[in-house]
Amino acid sequence: MGKLTVSCIAVGEIETNCYLLHAEGSAETLIVDPGDEARRIRRRIEADGLKPVAILLTHGHFDHTLAVGSLRKMYPGIPVCACRDEKDVLSDPYMNASFMSEFEPVTADVWLKEGDELDMAGLHFKVLQTPGHTIGSICFYFEEDKILVAGDTLFFTGFGRTDLPTGSMAQLKKSLERLLLTIPEDVIVLPGHGRTTTIGFEKSVEGLS
Predict the structure, then answer these.
(1) Residue 49 CB coordination number (10 Å)
(2) Which domain CATH number covers 12?
(3) I need a labelling partner for 172 at 20 to 30 A (CA). Which of 34, 73, 132, 152 fits?
């Protein structure tokens, strides 16, 4: 497996972090959380000479999925991967908070669960189920590269809201405890919004751990 290379594009009004992940020396790339601006994402992909092979979703809120439909048309046959517990959130405009925007239901081609290990784009990663922000929130853990793609489960000095449908502060606290206690401190966290951080730094934040 090649060394993980990360590119980030902040898309949409909420500036969601869309990540392009690929192995060093390989054109194959994973698109994580394409929340909007599909054409802009494609321009970045083409500028970097990349070839998308899958779309990974950390959860189903609209600001992480709005560009999925357009990217599917741009890259016919590209599979979408999401947690099986997130099916309703992905398809229901009330549950994914897209009722005030242009909504296109999203479904996955590959349904993921806790403990799944995948090899895609020359990269190996694990699926960690971290409910709380939504019932089917997941993180993608690239253990060899010491990278955790955390979605809205963990931010720099914070975490995602829990007041939307299927959100649960009790579940989120358990998920945060799991991440902060079981993931090595030198692992870099790629959040759904804002700047990167590390597990070690977040363990030191008062009120988070």
Answers:
(1) 8
(2) 3.60.15.10
(3) 34
